[in-house]
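User: Predict the structure for this protein chain, please.
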Amino acid sequence: MTSTYLEFLDKKGRPHRILRASAPVADTHTHLISRELVVADALQAASEAGVELVVTPLDPAEEAKDPDAALAQLTDALAAVSNPPTLRILAGAHPYHAESFLQDGEAAFQKLLAHPLAAGIGEIGLDYTCDVPKELQVEAFSAQLSFAVKQNLPVELHIRDQKDDENVTAHKDAERILSTVGIPKQGCVLHCFTQGPSVMRPFLDMGCTIAYGGALTFKKSEEIRQAALETPLTALVTETDAPYMSPEPLRGMPCRCAFVTVVEDFLATLFEEAKIASKHEVEEALWQNATKLFLS
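Assistant: Here is the predicted structure, written as structure tokens:
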């Protein structure tokens, strides 16, 4: 008989169990090509946990400068997994790599998007915690977003403000760019949302989807949880951002795609306890939203 749990060891060798999902689960943002992960192992664990859709960004100015090598790494891993989840890729230059993308990333970007697994553009956006000039970030973001609008491809956004920036300047600038350039009809996702309701609402009003990951489960994340509770079921998706930001009680160990089941269960329980929706309704909505974005 198949166990309903999967067991993972933390950095100290202590076992932690996660519940195998009883309904289809999607991880809408996970970094499969990472120094901390073996791609086939990550996909196998995800499959065994009940994850049926995995979306991974590939950066044409970083890990996918050689798009053929990056794509081969993913397809070889898929072939090594029994009953693999459906895999989709996004192509996009992270704001950290805006300058490299503008200099020589266009060819790799286009080659990634031409692949049969390609489903959208991401993660693109603005990150004001790094030393990349803002004007270069804006230029790279606007160019990639414009392409997504013209081709009607869904986008995933990385938007991060400087610490203690009460004006949330990066988010305000992103709002302005989205209003000017436009939003693809196929969808726009705020990846790894870690702000409160007031920052979220303008993006919801523009038709964006909000992605919640491990940070939702952290003890001091009350603002994020409140934002989640104010997000309509039609605008919710889950993610891991693996190998970063493992959810409680797995925090401190490298995150894996399989851990999205922990995030989904936490989010569904949050909605049920608030008497907004049943766990089943939340799980169904999360799956429908993810497949509508990346499989339709």
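The chain has ten helices and ten strands.
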